[in-house]
Design brief:
Length: 106
């Protein structure tokens, strides 16, 4: 058992060592997005803004913020992932069926 003896007998007599205490309370690291677009020479503001919006869309910054807006229980997250996998499998099966039908058409 690692920790220090505080004195007394019972479950509260041993306190976790400071290093151990901070490990258990450490928050998961959140990747911070800093989307940056450098304006090209003679580029209009509108064109730069379009490139910036496209980059934000590609990075998924807004989707991430919408996803984190409200806490989602792990069970709900699992169900959503399972539903997405089922949709993906269904789409792949439909695509394969269309391709087979297309081959027989000729």
């Amino acid at each position: 058992m690692c920790g220090e003896w505080v004195g007394g007998n019972g479950p509260d007599s041993i306190r976790p060592s400071p290093a151990r205490r901070t490990e258990s309370r450490r928050r998961p690291t959140v990747e911070k997005h800093l989307t940056e677009v450098m304006f090209r020479p003679n580029e209009s503001f509108e064109a730069g803004l379009r490139r910036f919006n496209k980059r934000v869309q590609q990075d998924g910054v807004l989707a991430e913020s919408r996803r984190r807006k409200q806490f989602e229980k792990p069970s709900v997250r699992r169900k959503k992932k399972q539903a997405a996998r089922a949709r993906k499998a269904r789409r792949a099966a439909m695509k394969a069926a269309r391709q087979i039908n297309h081959e027989y058409a000729f």
